[in-house]
């Protein structure tokens, strides 16, 4: 009996596989230096904000980026990082954090964007290298809702292989240097500057590679950003089964600067009369058919 107890105790105290412990840290033993070359501060009229800079410890990959409190992961290449993000109307506080064995270093800049508010923004990242957590957006169409029923198959599907949104949404692939859309942390981005009324569905399709067992996907959702009606929501869920489609959130754009978010398994069933009555059935339909395509 004693050997069994010892084995259990050792299993509980032994360090886990590093790739399952979240964001990897750099190998350097001297606190890194982070320098932000962009944004440089001041005012801008650009709708896209460049986040760019260098890290003294080239073994750090990725860096953690916070934009107005939303957390993203961004790849580094030889100690450099660069990626454009949709800017928020008004203040954009950008913080970049780089961690190695000596600790975490930070650099911060604030940029003020004189642009119209962004009514619908989605950013999806993952905490594991070598996996695809593909972002899939389903938009409402003229035929996707009939009465109080939702037909998922009639929704417009916007994702890595079809980035042209029929209603004017913009889908940005996970591209930030190196190979095109390589598996890693993301981020995948989607914005809509004039979203039509109706129900949207935000989902992810998981495709691991090699020995990657699971990851944690993080969704940052912002509606009517930069306005008094701003809604922000972060959803973090584990993904473990290859090819699994997981609904991260339903969004119902009600018009007049109003919207509601419903996160399955976290929120009570929505009661607004403009919500479809068959969300559970629609969810089963999506999971049965699966999001199209492997990888991205």
TrEMBL record:
Residue span(s) of domain DUF2135: 195-239
Gene3D superfamilies from the UniProt entry: Immunoglobulins (2.60.40.10)
InterPro entries, sorted: DUF2135 (IPR019220), Ig-like_fold (IPR013783)
Protein name: DUF2135 domain-containing protein
